């Protein structure tokens, strides 16, 4: 499972390369070894490829926007492609701005769809608004199902899935679509950039429920790193086990 044995590498972000604004062990080494074969495939639903690329560059990771695929922007693209969709956004300011730039105008009346993404301001009032819109027939689109991701201090950071859990505690039977991992749409968006067979692709992640499950569904080889991994605690240990050929 050496990185050099694959024509494309899809790597998760939080918990693999970074934790908050902290670089994790092996992050820079993986980028150096993978080069243009690497695409970041993340359930991040607060940033755009451009803002994330700039943030990573400030941390010492050079990843151009063209090699970043995010659940939040993929969810916006999904909604923008729906004819006549009238969308209410529960998302970060960056993702809302991206939605407007993508041609979505946020609707306040006759809402047909809701976008639920990671929004640090999501609270009781927003939850009440979501419940009201869903009971009136709007359809829910969820950027990703992650309930949390690892924080740099070891404390889990709440994610979109925690807001979804609050909604489901009130409307347990509500129908919704998930765009991010483990669903295949995000993987297809990344793999469309490569004209290669699935067996030539390596996926790397830290979440067995999203990263590992998604890779398995598409038949991709998978490397699990982080606290849930028995073999590799981080990318540094994974890369050390599979050094570059002399």
From TrEMBL:
GO terms for molecular function: phosphatase activity. Coiled coil: none annotated. It comes from the Bacteria. One of its GO terms (cellular component) is cytoplasm. This is Haloacid dehalogenase subfamily IIA protein,haloacid dehalogenase superfamily enzyme, subfamily IA.
